[in-house]
User: What shape does this take?
Amino acid sequence: MTNVANKQMICDVLMQAAKTDKDIVVLCSDSRGSASATPFAKAFPEQFVEVGIAEQDLVGIAAGMARCGKRTFPMSPACFITARSYEQCKVDVAYSHTNVKLIGISGGVSYGALGMSHHSAQDIACMSSIPGMRVYLPSDCHQTKKLMEVLVKDLEPAYIRVGRNAVPEVYSEDNCPFEMDKATVIQQGSDVALIACGEMVLYAKQAADILKAQGISAYVLDMYCVKPLDTAAVIKAASETKAVVTIEEHSPFGGMGSMVAQVVAANCPRKVLTLALPDTPVITGTSLEVFKHYGLTGDGIAAKAKELLNA
Amino acid sequence: MNLSKLAYQLRRDVVDMIVAGKGGHIGGDMSVMEVLVTLYFHEMNVTPENFATGQHDHFVMSKGHSVEALYAVLAAKGFFPRERVMKEFSQFGSPFIGHPNNKLPGIEMNSGALGHGLPVAVGMALAERINGSPNRVYVVMGDGEQAEGSVWEGAMSGANYKLGNLCAILDRNRLQISGSTEDVMALENLKAKWTAFGWNVIDVADGNSVAQLQDAFAAAKACTNQPSLVLANTVKGKGSSVMENKASWHHHVPNAEEYAHIMADLKQHEEEA
Ligand SMILES: Cc1ncc(C[n+]2csc(CCOP(=O)(O)OP(=O)(O)O)c2C)c(N)n1
Ligand SMILES: [Mg+2]
Assistant: This one.
């Protein structure tokens, strides 16, 4: 367990890049504290814009600045930057093709007991359905670092969703295989493919260990690149196994699981079970309590995978 | 009933709730307490009995993060047992979540995302006018919240429809999460802005004074051809020097030492009120 949250890692990479790239601009909507961007604001006051509690303004300003040569990184809670500013994301960023990297912090159910207004369980669906918008959900701080090092340099719009707290490492500093827009194969296996993104990758990995102890061989894929989905990796994982389980911190509709199911159905039909949050405001609790309650931890995933194989 | 005393008593409930629930928005709870107490115990026609009939004044907590203050007031008003909310706030499986939710009695609209309350209140006021109902509509907003464009869309529509049955309260505590509102996104001149938008602006010098708030609500009611804005100049963290006027107390959870100090201050204010 590192104590570096993914959002912290994003700011670390931006701090590093901003030293030499004066076009990098971070924007916040009364969100600098929660985004871990206070050190950035202090170190680079000329490259930081505060807009107040105005997420539509945040994304619009980021798009306008990008059109005039800046590389902008608006950072705001995932629930607000996607839902409140959705039209700005669609029209001013994706449609106008401005180089804006939308950083959604405290995504999924990170805000726990604050309730549905603060949860973002539809962001994968809504952002992925915008033409030209890429969607990334890194699993740990090491992967977040590698991803951000690419994103600070490229010129295309993207949405990056990370959680609120530091999460246990999936990789390590010197062992974090990463290729842009290619899913990371965590382990090969022959019975069931577990395809996960974001914080769920850790639990998919734990499920694989539990399954192994029961004599079931799991293939584990970290699909941090939800869009463009690494279809070749999906086909390979599905083809080498008998069934597919997807795991995501999202609504059961229109998320990574839906996309994987489309690819599997069209290319190598197999049963696909999509594990996700329920289609209801989630139970009050911390992220971990919520994950446990809905079977989105190692135990729950392993049990469902076993059931699927036996069905 | 001495409502000023009640406000300090309920502040202690809020502190206990936040400490037990390990989270909450203490600063804004403290600034808005007299506004809520005056609305629920003096101004609004709403009780657990008439709430169930649907015939009552309406209330929207647009700054939904101050839900702990609302819970304390609703419990005192008899909407649900005080012991329940004190014990269950933010706990696993609890209905008492960190923002208003209308699965609970006494709450009409879910909130938490800022900038939603005023348009919703405009809709309620429009409907009640069409209904020919005497029911009035009250909505409480934060000052940082004023940066949301939707607030000003609601301001325009409320004035356009001359909603004399609508009263918005602005908790002008001068702070938001990142610091002073004037540093983060300057709001002034708020009175001139709301007046220009067509509202009857009632400036309350001390928005933590029950007496001044009572006068303001009376003045709002007297204005029948325009919506009113009660500009309540409050103190964020009101009630203890430990937290007053400190941006860091927006959502700080008191430690043991701070807790003792705050509770002693609140008790003393209660006695003196
Ligand atoms: C749309 C939206 N954006 C951001 C937030 C996160 N947030 C919660 S409270 C808060 C600050 C509110 O400041 P203010 O309106 O001044 O309230 P108060 O000082 O009364 O607590 C912010 C930014 C939110 N709840 N909703
Ligand atoms: Mg404020």
Remarks:
- The interface with chain A takes residues 21, 23, 64, 90-99, 101, 110-115, 144-145, 147-149, 176-178, 181, 184-185 of chain B (CB under 8 Å).
- The pocket of magnesium ion (ligand 2) is lined by residues B 142-144, 173, 175-176 (CB under 6 Å).
- Residues 3-272 of chain B form a domain with the Rossmann fold fold (CATH 3.40.50.970).
